[in-house]
Amino acid sequence: MSAASTGKIRVVLAEDQAMVRGALAALLSIEHDIEVVAAVADGQEALRVVGRERPDVLVTDIEMPQLTGLELTARVRELYPETRVVIVTTFARPGYLRRALDAGAHGYLLKDRPSAELADAVRRVNQSLRVVDPALAAEIWNAENDPLTDRERQILRRAGEGESTAEIARSLRLSDGTVRNYLSEAIAKMGASNRVEASRLARTKGWL
């Protein structure tokens, strides 16, 4: 069921913090032309709900369990390209914005913006327009290029969260040696002395 058949823009929300999720749902639900059809707490569930509901717009945070908002955006673009994605996050970093746009996001808003901007962004991306915070968009031109591969980023993120080499290897079905090689490459690219420092630097730049 689409916006054309219901008269409303159908939205799915993905946000792991219950209070924020409820607030966003309430803010959008008071709009006469927007209907929140589902609000979920993790990326994997969001992907399932998008497949079931086929909403016009998905509003998602970046940091979530199961699938990150960026991973979710890429999967939605691949599987359900008719659904447009707006990312709402605290990360005011050009690295995250660049990765979001590369993943297929149509909008990128910061959580400290006025609430009315979210509804406006939903309407605009539903009209095939792009919505990006202008100050952050200007910074992207001067931002460093992300040197990490997807696999290096995946492994470095897990290492930064405290997983051991063996745990990462089991989870990703790789050998311990392969995981160590990816970590060594990531550490070298970041100019760091260890995995923790590399993870911190990459996160600061918006690359994780």
Task: Give an overview in words.
- α4 runs parallel beside α5, α8 packs across α11 and α10 crosses α11.
- The chain has helices spanning 3-6, 18-29, 43-53, 69-79, 94-103, 116-126, 134-139, 150-160, 165-172, 176-190, 195-204, and strands spanning 9-14, 34-40, 57-60, 84-89, 107-110, 131-132.
- It has eleven helices and six strands.
- It has two domains: 3-141, Response regulator (Rossmann fold), CATH 3.40.50.2300; 150-204, Winged helix-like DNA-binding domain superfamily/Winged helix DNA-binding domain (Arc Repressor Mutant, subunit A), CATH 1.10.10.10.
- The protein is an alpha/beta fold and 208 residues long.
- The longest helix has 15 residues, at 176-190.
- α6 (116-126) links the parallel β5 (107-110) and β6.
- The radius of gyration is 18 Å and the shape is globular.
- The two termini are 35 Å apart.
- The model has no long low-confidence stretch (mean pLDDT 89).
- A six-stranded parallel sheet has the order 2-1-3-4-5-6, with helices on both faces.
